[in-house]
Amino acid sequence: MQSADVTATFCATLVDEWFEAGVRYAVVAPGSRSTPMALAMVHHPQLNVQVFHDERSAAFAALGIARVTGVPTLLLCTSGTATANFHPAVMEASHAEVPLLVLTADRPPELQGVGAPQTTDQQRLYGTSLRLFIDAGIPDDERKVDWRGIASRVLVASVGDRPGPVQVNLPFREPLLGTVDELPARTMVSAASPHARTGASRHVLPATRSTPVGTEILAKLAKRLSGRRGVIIAGDRAGSPTAISRLSTMLGWPVFADPLGGCRNENELSIRHADGWLRDDALASKFTPDVVLRFGALPASKVVNTWLRECGAEVVAVTESPFLIDPDRRVSMHVFTDTEALCRDVGAIVNAADGEWTHSWARAESKARAALAAAVDVEGRLSEPYVARLVVESTPRGGSVVVSSSMPIRDVEWYAGATDHVRVVANRGVNGIDGVVSTAIGVAIGRGVATTLLIGDVAFLHDSNGLLGLAQRGVDLRIVVVDNRGGGIFSFLAQRGSMGEEEFERLFGTPHEVDIQRLVAAHGIRSCEVATAAELRTSLLEPGPSVTLVRTNRAANVLEHERLNRAIIAAVAE
Ligand SMILES: Cc1ncc(C[n+]2csc(CCOP(=O)(O)OP(=O)(O)O)c2C)c(N)n1
Ligand SMILES: [Mg+2]
Q1: Does the C-beta of 457 come closer than 6 Å to ligand 1?
Q2: Inter-axis angle of helices 3-21 and 35-43, to 10 degrees?
Q3: Which of 111, 154, 419, 436 gives 404 a disulfide partner, CB atoms 3.0 to 4.6 angstroms apart?
Q4: What SS3 class is residue 490?
Q5: Contact indicator for 273, 213 with CB cutoff of 8 Å
Q6: Tens digit of pLDDT at every position of the chain (574 positions)
Q7: Quick check: CB of 169 below 6 Å from ligand 1?
Q8: Ligand closest to the CA atom of residue 483
């Protein structure tokens, strides 16, 4: 076989193996060295291939797709600096446990280290963010039998106990254009493999882990949890919201319902606004639990996290991946298992809390909800908390809401109503404000349903390259930009009071003069500006892509948060 044909056949084999295992999406950034793999992707009859100009944007889109499908997304670029632009999304994927198959095209070994153009060291480029690195070497038809193994090794590593990104470095020698020959036969997998669904071919996706909780662990849990005053935390990657909500009802324990955990519903024990009243020390002390049962990641609220750290309760953490998030070193027992199995087993053996405990939480939450609903609407004018509520509420049932760091995610966590009619997604692995528009595009592609993005002006401008080609992607993405002319989060931090206005604005407030609507128009995307709740609702009725701009003021926003929190505290204290 000619070397170009070997390369083409090698790439087609990898793509075939990945598709057979369940991979359905590929995101490709343009370049020459990656040609053999790009062609293998677009020539696959069923693989959905999305092209993005900017590699950073491409990587975040792939992240968004992989996050909502739970299946690894292929991500391809050419050699050189292109590969480094994947890095932020690879970091997020690592921390947020999202499976990504990162494919970096490379120059062949003889062009390494000799100053050849567009050539740099791409080995283990993403360092400790990777679950596995493989350099595939120059495709060689003597090693045809190994080709499918390369594809399946990285795939299995990306969907392992701790899902995450893997990198396959792909050195290709010219010529790059070849003809695909017969592919090597698909591997037979024995039914004994934990990932095999059938004996015929590999089906590793989506990964299912339903490990029963052992009796020894259950006995330990019963001792810690039974009959006690507990609270449940359901954060990102908490696992089955239905199982957690059912356990909450059975035990009479409130659930701190982070929107990312899926338990934020109309149930009276679904606690949405505790961040407000836990700011009051006297009130907070009346709600001290004996034990905290935490599923998944921590919420964003500093108030809630500080209260959890300092209230003295024992903390039991349950995670569906072996990695424990415990920055405060408060966890005394960590169970790595399937949430549904754990909830079922614990529900069967643990006695409920006393009724007074359950009632006091339900009462507080219902008062907080009523007070907030009344206070947040001031003649229909839009504040940042109100926008967060309206964006969630206005997203069609079954749709997605993507929320940017940093005030939008907080406003949704603190002030939004129920979110169980939608899927809420945020990049909270490393909390970056980069790539958020592109992540939302990925979410919209991956789920194929209406998607709303709530984002601040700085984060929006940071990833305005996400708008490249958006008008042509056929996705229903409705972007709401809260434009407070800079970083509103910093007005809540100690930095604000510790320096003069001018220095604060220069370093933290960072105002800008960008005309966002004109920027959006340059990309051929519809936009409008709204000032009232009715206008925002109307604007969100229409399918996207669209951008809705809401102008707010950073200083007034701090006061509005204080006003709402006071209203919540007053109502709960009553
Ligand atoms: C990539 C990255 N750079 C910088 C930061 C630090 N940072 C956090 S919030 C923020 C400002 C965000 O402003 P905006 O998007 O307008 O939201 P607002 O705070 O105004 O709601 C910055 C710069 C970050 N988290 N990620
Ligand atoms: Mg802002």
Answers
A1: yes
A2: 50
A3: 436
A4: helix
A5: no
A6: 899 999 999 999 999 999 999 999 999 999 999 999 999 999 999 999 999 999 999 999 999 999 999 999 999 999 999 999 999 999 999 999 999 999 999 999 999 999 999 999 999 999 999 999 999 999 999 999 999 999 999 999 999 999 999 999 999 999 999 999 999 998 755 444 344 333 334 444 444 444 567 888 999 999 999 999 999 999 999 999 999 999 999 999 999 999 999 999 999 999 999 999 999 999 999 999 999 999 999 998 999 999 999 999 999 999 999 999 999 999 999 999 999 999 999 999 999 999 999 999 999 999 999 999 999 999 999 999 999 999 999 999 999 999 999 899 999 999 999 999 999 999 999 999 999 999 999 999 999 999 999 999 999 999 999 999 999 999 999 999 999 999 999 999 998 989 999 999 999 999 999 999 999 999 999 999 999 999 999 999 999 999 999 999 999 999 999 999 999 999 999 9
A7: no
A8: 2
DSSP string, 7-42: HHHHHHHHHHHHHHHT--EEEE---STTHHHHHHHH
Tokens standing for 252?
Answer: 């009479």
Which residues are registered as beta bridge partners of 233?
256, 294
| Residues 136, 140, 145: CA angle, nearest 5 degrees | 80
- What is the CA(560)–ligand 1 centre distance, in A? 20
**Which candidate, 494, 490, 492, places its Cα nearest to that of 509?**
490
HSE-up (13 A, CA, CB side) for residue 377: 12
Q: Is residue 257 within a helix (H) or strand (E), and if so which, with residue range? A: strand 255-257
> CA triplet 52, 526, 542: central angle to 5 degrees?
105
Contact between 526 and 506 under an 8 Å Cβ cutoff? The reply is: no
Model confidence, pTM: 0.96
Q: Which atom of ligand 1 is nearest to the CA of 459?
A: 15
Which has the closest alpha carbon to 89: 65, 112, 121?
65
Q: How far is the CA of 182 from the centre of ligand 2 (A)?
A: 55
Ligand 1 within 6 A of CB of 491: no
Return residues with CB closer than 5 A to ligand 2 (ion): 456-457, 484, 488
Ligand 1 atom with minimal separation from the 407 CA? 21
Bridge partners (DSSP) of residue 232 are: 255, 293
Q: Is the CB–ligand 1 distance for residue 545 below 6 Å?
A: no
Q: Which residue type occupies 367?
A: K
CA–centroid distance, 454 to ligand 1, in Å, is 13
Place of tokens 């795939």: 155
Integer-rounded Cα radius of gyration of the chain: 25
**Torsions phi, psi for 223 (to 5 deg):** -60, -40
- List, in order, residues 6 or more apart from 459 with CB less than 8 Å away: 404, 405, 433, 434, 436
Ligand 1 atom closest to the Cα of residue 490 is 19
